[in-house]
């Protein structure tokens, strides 16, 4: 029978010996693998993550700017609408002012004719024609423009008839007065 000590020695696995070229290959493989891992970690932590954070920061800034841009576009639209309203009001005010200027000239000319001051009446009727010429381009639509043109012809007719028939000139000026007041009533 065998000794128990020998039995334990014989049943143990024999020690394997790796060849020296295989150990060198494994050692260098491990070194290369470690170098790749360190390189990947360096690239990840040195370049990729900071760039990723920079991209995220830029994306957040772009999102904020996009929201700000949307707000500014809304403000611009509101200001454009307000500007259009103000332009319409200014146009109406200019039209109203020109009509009132022509109306004042008509009433002053009627007064000068009533006072039998022909020189002043002639000058005032010339002022009416000039006021109507200024009023023409301000007319809101084609109908108003045509009406202003007709009034200009009437004012010229009143100027021509002033020396021959002052009563006809007064009647024409009264008609001009009514037409201008009617036009004034149509302005919002």
Task: Provide a descriptive summary of the structure in words.
This protein has 188 residues and is an all-alpha fold. Helix content is 86%, strand content 0%. It has five helices and no strands. Helix 2 packs antiparallel against helix 3, helix 2 runs antiparallel to helix 5 (166-185) and helix 3 runs antiparallel to helix 4 (142-161). The N and C termini lie far apart (131 Å). The model has no long low-confidence stretch (mean pLDDT 86).
Search tags:
mainly alpha, 5 helices, Four Helix Bundle (Hemerythrin (Met), subunit A), rod-shaped, 188 residues
Helix content: over 70%
* DSSP summary, beta strand count: 0
Give the ordered list of helices and strands.
Answer: HHHHH
Report, as a whole number of angstroms, the end-to-end distance: 131 Å
Structural class: mainly alpha
* Rg measurement, Å: 50 Å
How would you sum up the global shape?
A: rod-shaped
Which stretches of 5+ consecutive residues score pLDDT under 50? none
CATH overall fold name of the domain at 93-185: Four Helix Bundle (Hemerythrin (Met), subunit A)
Tell me, what is the CATH class of the domain at 93-185? Mainly Alpha
Overall pLDDT confidence: 86
Strand content: under 5%
Label the CATH architecture of the domain at 93-185: Up-down Bundle
Number of helices: 5
Please outline the major beta sheet: none
């Amino acid at each position: 029978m065998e000794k128990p000590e020998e039995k334990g020695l014989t049943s143990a696995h024999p020690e394997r010996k790796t060849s020296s070229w295989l150990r060198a290959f494994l050692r260098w493989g491990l070194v290369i693998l470690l170098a790749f891992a360190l390189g990947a970690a360096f690239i990840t932590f040195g370049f990729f993550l900071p760039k990723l954070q920079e991209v995220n920061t830029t994306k957040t800034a772009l999102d904020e700017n996009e929201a700000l841009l949307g707000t500014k576009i809304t403000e611009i639209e509101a200001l454009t609408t307000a500007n259009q309203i103000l332009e319409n009001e200014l146009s109406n005010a200019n039209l109203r002012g020109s009509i009132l200027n022509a109306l004042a000239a008509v009433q002053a000319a009627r007064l000068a004719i009533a006072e039998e001051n022909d020189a002043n009446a002639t000058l005032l009727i010339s002022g009416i024609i000039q006021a109507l010429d200024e009023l023409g381009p301000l007319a809101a639509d084609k109908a108003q423009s045509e009406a202003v043109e007709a009034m200009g012809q009437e004012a010229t007719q009143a100027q021509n008839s002033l020396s021959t028939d002052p009563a006809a000139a007064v009647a024409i000026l009264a008609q001009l007065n009514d037409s201008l007041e009617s036009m004034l009533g149509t302005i919002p």
